[in-house]
């Protein structure tokens, strides 16, 4: 019998597909499902009954001697470890870094020596402020932490998706984070900076203004981890075999281009699918659609650093790509999901201090402080200095040292020598240092008085903020003004709102005016006192997301709303066009069991209409029969599907029969260039080509009046 079903690109997994590895090995016994391992306690004692605790009498108390019960509850009680004090919510994946060329003239770091060489890597993406259970689409900076398992040890590049930071000196980090997270008396709001404490701190810290422009831009509501840039933020050093040092800034460029959602969409995604980003990464890797970034380097010497307008040790500043071009030197591919979230994503311990021969620090005071903080926090989180033996943290090369013991010592070398120098001779004496190949710090010359100061060269807080704003397209500038207005509208203290606007006056008069108007401030404040006047730097076009569109719809997802009786050829044509573009699709149906198309084909639903609002898709199609349109135009969730797609300036494909729904959704009278009618299967290609623009931004001024 022919298989009369049409499924989307997403194949559903069954229990039988899943590899059962829990309790592999040991004795087995027959149960209804087949031959399975015998359930045991942690001590390996076979368990006869896991459903009932041991009681005295038929209805009596539980016996203290029930070791199985006690062990099970004891272990459960201790399952949690402290969540990260920042970046608690994250999602990781495995992959590799591949060098495009040898950089041996610049660095002796092993992973950069041979073109084509692949180095295993693990990446963890995260939000900063939210707790572990918060939602993915919080307006927040995203962490982009990469662990490279090089042949000369682990290198951790612990970066963000924004190239600058809020503060210049690590001593301010606890204050910044306290202000950003939930307020201590009430324990809310979580996972958002839209509250008094955060903006109070920022408005009292002019150094934070540049990053707050980035934070209020669309960069902090990315569509996917796959469509974000990443940055090492600080200036680091690369050191070659001759000991020559070159300064470097690290950049990650997503192969599929950048993309963000709009704010109203972000708010709704958080309700519809709080796991939106992690699900997206998981699904794309499982589908074999491996996310990829290119590693870019900005390389410069002391001479450039001297001449540059800003201090290269100041993490609140960028070096524009237009001044110092990025050299692309390799790619990062994520091709494997974790097997166990806790073991890998939760226990992975990134430390900025993890560098390898050929890479070195600079005196950036933020970086210097981080080097203390990360090691310290891992001890707190993971509970033992032996966290380096956890498989996710262990280098993929042998380790040899004289450190020993401690909680959970899992690797315990044999032999007598646990110190050096010793006179046990040869291999029995254990490892010895190797001056020729071992890590050597770059011998930078340092001297001067001990001072608690902020260098004068760090004092210009507004020029690059202005440059960032000027580099955005008008649509993006509007989003920045809207984001400031939204966040400051949640701030109850009017004086804080006004103080923020006083800083924006030093950035751009028009921006300050828009925000002041949006807040209905009674009077425009005076510009904030500035240590340095704002310079009018030329725009850096590379800083805009919309100014650098991807020109492909690859990796994006279309939600197709269907009803019974839908024209099967239209559905097939659309599916083919989406698949040919390398994009994904999901069928959204009134009932998850699917719909019967015009020819009787069962089209299986991926989602029921109330479980997949259009916010979880990049573009939508509404393909209905006359009866289907009659039914769905009375269904609020179907109307929202269309209304939201329209409000979020998405491309919408429809067939003529769907018009009653479009009318009920109040979009029929405003149909614009973002709509494509699918008269025949051939029109689907036109629709997908149109979707490459990602959003129909021309519509936005018409759907936003306040
Ligand atoms: Fe940090 C975690 C990125 C400044 C202290 N940070 C953490 C993570 C990322 C960053 C991506 C999550 C790592 C993971 O997935 O496990 N942090 C940054 C960037 C910064 C920065 C790009 C500035 C350029 N951080 C910073 C400072 C301090 C910290 C100045 C303290 C002085 N960060 C920490 C931490 C965390 C952390 C408390 C929490 C959990 C962890 O380290 O492992 O140590």
Automatic annotation (TrEMBL):
Classification via Pfam families: Catalase, Catalase-rel, Catalase_C
Binding of heme, residues: 84, 124, 173, 370, 374, 381
Top EC class, one word: oxidoreductase
GO cellular component, one term: cytosol
Region (Disordered): 526-548
MF GO annotations: catalase activity; heme binding; metal ion binding
UniProt keyword annotations, A-Z: Heme, Hydrogen peroxide, Iron, Metal-binding, Oxidoreductase, Peroxidase
Domain Catalase core: 40-428
Record GO biological process: hydrogen peroxide catabolic process; response to oxidative stress
Signal peptide range in chain numbering: none
Active-site positions on this chain: 87, 160
Xref: SMART domains: Catalase
Catalytic activity: 2 H2O2 = O2 + 2 H2O
Domain of life: Bacteria
EC number: 1.11.1.6
CDD domains (UniProt xref): GATase1_catalase
Obligatory cofactor(s): heme
Family: Belongs to the catalase family. HPII subfamily.
Function of the molecule: Decomposes hydrogen peroxide into water and oxygen; serves to protect cells from the toxic effects of hydrogen peroxide.
The protein's name: Catalase
């Amino acid at each position: 019998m022919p298989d009369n079903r049409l499924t989307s690109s997403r194949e559903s997994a069954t229990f039988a597909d899943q590899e059962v590895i829990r309790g592999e090995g040991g004795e087995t016994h027959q149960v209804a499902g087949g031959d399975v391992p015998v359930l045991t306690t942690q001590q390996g004692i076979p368990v006869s009954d896991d459903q009932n605790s041991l009681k005295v009498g038929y209805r009596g108390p539980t016996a203290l001697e029930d070791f199985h019960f006690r062990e099970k509850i004891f272990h459960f009680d201790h399952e949690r470890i402290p969540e990260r004090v920042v970046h608690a919510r994250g999602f990781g994946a495995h992959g590799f870094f591949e060098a495009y060329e040898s950089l041996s003239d610049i660095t002796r770091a092993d992973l950069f020596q041979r073109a084509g060489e692949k180095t295993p890597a693990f990446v963890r993406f995260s939000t900063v402020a939210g707790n572990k259970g918060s939602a993915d689409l919080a307006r927040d900076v995203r962490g982009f932490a990469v662990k490279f398992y090089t042949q000369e040890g682990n290198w951790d590049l612990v970066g963000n998706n924004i190239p600058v930071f809020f503060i210049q000196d690590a001593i301010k980090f606890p204050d910044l984070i306290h202000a950003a997270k939930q307020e201590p008396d009430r324990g809310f709001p979580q996972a958002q900076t839209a509250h008094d404490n955060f903006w109070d701190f920022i408005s009292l810290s002019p150094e934070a203004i540049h990053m707050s422009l980035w934070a209020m831009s669309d960069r902090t509501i990315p569509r996917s981890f796959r469509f974000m840039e990443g940055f090492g933020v600080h200036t680091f050093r690369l050191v070659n075999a001759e000991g020559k040092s070159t300064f470097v800034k690290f950049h990650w460029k997503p192969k599929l281009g950048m993309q963000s959602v709009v704010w109203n969409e972000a708010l709704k995604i958080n309700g519809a699918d709080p796991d939106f980003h992690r699900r997206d990464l998981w699904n794309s890797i499982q589908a074999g659609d491996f996310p990829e970034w290119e590693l870019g380097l900005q390389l410069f010497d002391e001479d450039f650093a001297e001449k540059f307008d800003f201090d290269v040790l100041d993490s609140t500043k960028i070096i524009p790509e237009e001044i110092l071009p990025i050299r692309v030197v390799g790619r990062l591919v994520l091709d494997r999901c974790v097997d166990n979230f806790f073991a890998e994503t939760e226990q992975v311990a990134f430390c900025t201090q993890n560098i390898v021969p050929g890479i070195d620090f600079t005196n950036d005071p933020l970086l210097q402080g981080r080097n203390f903080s990360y090691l310290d926090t891992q001890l707190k989180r993971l509970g033992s200095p032996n966290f380096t033996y956890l498989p996710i943290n262990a280098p993929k090369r042998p380790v040899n040292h004289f450190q020993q013991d401690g909680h959970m010592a899992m690797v315990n070398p044999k032999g007598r020598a646990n110190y050096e120098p010793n006179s046990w001779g040869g291999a029995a004496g254990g490892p010895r240092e190797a001056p020729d190949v071992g890590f050597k710090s770059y011998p930078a010359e340092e001297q001067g008085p001990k001072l608690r100061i902020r260098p004068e060269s760090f004092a210009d807080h507004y020029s690059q903020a202005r440059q960032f704003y000027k580099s955005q397209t008008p649509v993006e500038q509007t989003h920045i003004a809207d984001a400031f207005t939204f966040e400051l509208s949640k701030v109850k203290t009017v004086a804080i709102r006004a103080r923020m606007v006083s800083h924006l006056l030093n950035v751009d008069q028009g921006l300050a005016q828009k925000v002041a108007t949006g807040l209905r401030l009674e009077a425009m404040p005076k510009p904030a006192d500035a240590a340095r006047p704002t310079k009018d730097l030329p725009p850096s076009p590379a800083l805009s997301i919309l100014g650098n569109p991807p020109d492909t719809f690859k990796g994006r997802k279309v939600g197709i709303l269907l009803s019974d009786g839908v024209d099967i050829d239209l559905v097939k044509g659309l599916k083919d066009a989406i698949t040919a573009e390398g994009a994904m699709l999901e069928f959204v149906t009134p009932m998850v069991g699917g719909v019967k198309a015009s020819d009787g084909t069962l089209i299986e639903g991926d989602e029921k209409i109330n479980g997949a609002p259009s916010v979880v898709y990049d573009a939508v199609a509404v393909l209905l029969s006359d009866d289907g349109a009659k039914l769905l135009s009375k269904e609020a969730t179907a109307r929202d599907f269309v209304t939201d797609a329209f409000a979020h300036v998405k491309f919408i494909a429809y067939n003529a029969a769907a018009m009653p729904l479009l009318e009920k959704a109040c979009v029929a009278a405003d149909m614009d260039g973002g709509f494509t009618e699918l008269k025949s299967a051939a029109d689907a290609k036109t629709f997908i080509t149109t979707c490459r623009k990602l959003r129909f931004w021309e519509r936005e001024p018409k759907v936003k009046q306040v």
